[in-house]
Amino acid sequence: MGYALMWIEGLAAMLFLVALTAACSARWSRRRRQLALPLATAFAILIVALLVTHAAGWAKFYFHLPHNWFYYTLFWTVLFFVGSGIIVRRGLKRRDEEDTPPARFWPRVRLFSASLAALILFAITLSNLDLALQLQLAEARAEAGSVLSALTPPPVPEKDNAAPLYDEAFAMLSQRDPFPSSREQRIETWRKKHWQQAHKWDLPDSSFEEFDWRDPAWKMYLDSRAKALSMLRRAASKPACRFPQSDPLIFFDGASRRYSPDSDFAQASQLLALDACVRAARGETHAAVEDIVALLGMARHTSDAAIEKEAWETLAEVLRLSEPKADDLSRLSRIEGEPYLRDFRKVEASFVLRSLLLFSTGFSARWYWDMTKELSFLNRKGHPMPEGYEAPYWFESTVVPLWRVFLGPDELLVLRRSLKACQESLRRPETQIFADWHELSQSLRDQEGGWIYMGSMQTRLQSNARWVCDVATLRRLARLALALRMYDAKQGKYPEKLDDLTPDFLDHSPIDPWDSGPLHMKRTEGSVLLFTLRNGTEKPILSPDFSTQPRDIVFRMEMKKH
């Protein structure tokens, strides 16, 4: 009912405004001048209405928002076009040149009062609807609080908490530059080789010999970080990690510290990976494996797929550089990774809840800053929003309430649906909700939601799902590589097919979490390649057309000579 009143009041206000301009212009003697003002007013309002209708249609048919504002705005635009046409025609119509247009006798004061009254009623209705929606949002946040409390890990005893050790290690690392200036280029080269090893299909064996892990300068540098490395290993071995948190929506303890590539955890994981490679090259295989175990412990504490990816890619380099003992390899094969697909509903709910804080304090300021920072005359293109910045009053009092009233219900729909899905996953934490990435991705595409969800969150959630699926795939390829090495250590040769690894070295043959398809092995001269085939081809596609092809994952390892 409230929305119908808004449509009617807004239409009445605009039609009264056109009638007022016609009554004013009818006092002029020239015909063109009489028509100019009301037609210009009606045309300006019509242009705005058409733009809003176009935006509503774009949201409806491109983003597939569930509301029907397109049909309502289109109907409103048609009514205004017809109504304004009737008003101008009847008010300014002449039978001959001497006739006076009827609009000259229209009561201008009453028309102005009527237009103003309709606008005031529109504002009152908008304010009431906005207040009601804010109350619904407050209730939804209160409901979300109980879900977040269930998601938040229980308190960790001080003796089992890794957070103080991480803080101490980070303090040691921050006392010096991340890497010596003379080694920065070498580190960049290493990162590129690291990436190539994980993603390249066929590379000559010599391509990895360019980077000298046995360079004494690396050992000197890592020796200077020995205390910090030892502290990181101790922290990673702790059962749990819980940092003091001020943001109730951050239920992953390390979340506020781990997203940036320059974060403490990112720097620490890179240091551990570097140490593992240098130690493996020097034959200290047990210490290299300890570094990988520490990386996996950090990934478990932070629920960070990027750190787990770092660990498995480092394992590939360690296997190339050395031959770890069977006991060390079996230790790595027993480490469980995060159940990303199973817990994705919890991740989605947390993501939605954080994103819907856009409706809370600071929303209008962030929105206005993002919309206007690209305007050249403001001279702040690309600049971050300063702390304490506030949006103009007119923006907060007009644009933001309109956004909340017309698009807020769709956002509430997303919030409540996510809360329900999260509560169901909490009641059945052991259930594998999604069989593979395809099923998860399809469930995200099938969901209806508001502007924020369909325009931003859905894409980011699908990208996150793709990322964690690739990390889970890399984990399974790494376990295959460990089983191959243990098979080689026992049998003195590599198996002809992956099925030979079960049941002595693997309980079952791993499958690709992308589409539940098999993983593949290819033996080349001097190396073994473990890979996926997600496109029905005979070899992996590493640089795909993402609109039609998924990217394959490759794990390359040296085949030791006997």
How many separate helices? 18
Strand order of the largest sheet: 1-2-3
Task: Please bin the fraction of helical residues.
Answer: 55-70%
Number of strands: 3
Distance between the termini: 82 Å
What is the CA-atom radius of gyration, in angstroms?
Answer: 32 Å
Mean pLDDT: 79
Percent strand? under 5%
Task: List the secondary-structure elements in sequence, H or E.
Answer: HHHHHHHHHHHHHHHHHHEEE
- Describe the sheet with the most strands: 3 strands, antiparallel
Helix-strand layout with pairing:
Blueprint: H1 2-25, H2 31-61, H3 69-92, H4 108-151, H5 163-174, H6 184-199, H7 216-223, H8 226-236, H9 255-258, H10 264-281, H11 285-302, H12 305-321, H13 326-333, H14 344-355, H15 363-372, H16 393-427, H17 437-446, H18 451-491, E1 520-524, E2 527-531, E3 554-558
Helix pairs in contact: 1-2, 1-3, 1-4, 2-3, 4-16, 5-8, 6-12, 8-11, 10-11, 10-12, 11-12, 12-18, 13-18, 14-16, 14-18, 17-18
Give a written overview of the molecule:
The chain has 562 residues and is an all-alpha fold. The chain folds into four domains: 2-139, no CATH class; 160-336, no CATH class; 344-433, no CATH class; 468-562, no CATH class. 61% of the residues lie in helices and 3% in strands. The protein contains 18 helices and three strands. The chain has a three-stranded antiparallel sheet. Helix 17 (437-446) packs antiparallel against helix 18. It is elongated and about 110 Å long.
